[in-house]
Amino acid sequence: MGRGKVELKRIENKISRQVTFSKRRSGLMKKANEISVLCDAEVALIVFSTKGKLFHYSTDSSMERIIEKYERHSHVENHLLTNSNQENWCLEHRKLLARIELLQRNTRNYVGEDLDPLSLRELQSLQHQLENALKRIRTRKNQLMLESISQLQKKEKSLQDQNNLLAKKIKEREKQQIVEHIQEEQQSNLKGTFCNYPKKKTTPTNQQSLLNVCSGGSQLPPTGAHEGGSRALLAESNTLIPPWLLHHMSQ
């Protein structure tokens, strides 16, 4: 029965991790030795533990020699890669320069400059492009104008509604002020009629009747002896007393 596939992940248990490191390191050293012997290869192996302890293996040639050889090969590869990258950058630079020149020439042609080198077909193509661009510009301009007009109309309607509402409130306020003014004038006339009555010599009966009128009383002396004085007083003051009150008092 074959071994199951082991999931590669960090071993959480510290002791198990250290045991596994020792076993795997020994196996790695053994494999390095086998490949160097079987294939006549130069092998250099460097391993640092989690605590920083160094473990290394190298073939018959020293570790320093293998590292120097590695550095030389790395330098050559980096140099070749750098040269390749430089060539690619030079090619890309030339492409970008050509594209920039083409865009600048097209820009000058669009504003009506440097048209002499262009052929008839190129001029016709340029004209067609400009006409299409002009149509798109006009369409966009008309759209913006319509949107602006619509917004102004909505704003005008809103302002008109506000104006109508304010005018209605002003009219209601004016009516209310007129009613209040009329009521104040009526009250002032009534007070002037009763309280500012001209002084004259009156009998006690007439004085009593006048006091009843000024105090707002609705009853007059019922006796016949006082009716003559009251009617005379009412006759003299009929120019100041309102008709409806004079009629009430005469009854």
TrEMBL record:
Coiled-coil intervals, chain numbering: 120-176
SMART domains from the UniProt entry: MADS (SM00432)
Residue intervals of the K-box domain: 86-176
Top-level lineage group: Eukaryota
Main location: nucleus
Domain MADS-box: 1-61
Compartment annotation: Nucleus
Keywords attached to this entry: Coiled coil, DNA-binding, Nucleus, Transcription, Transcription regulation
Name of the protein described by the UniProt record: MADS-box protein
Source organism of the structure: Rehmannia glutinosa
Organismal lineage: Eukaryota, Viridiplantae, Streptophyta, Embryophyta, Tracheophyta
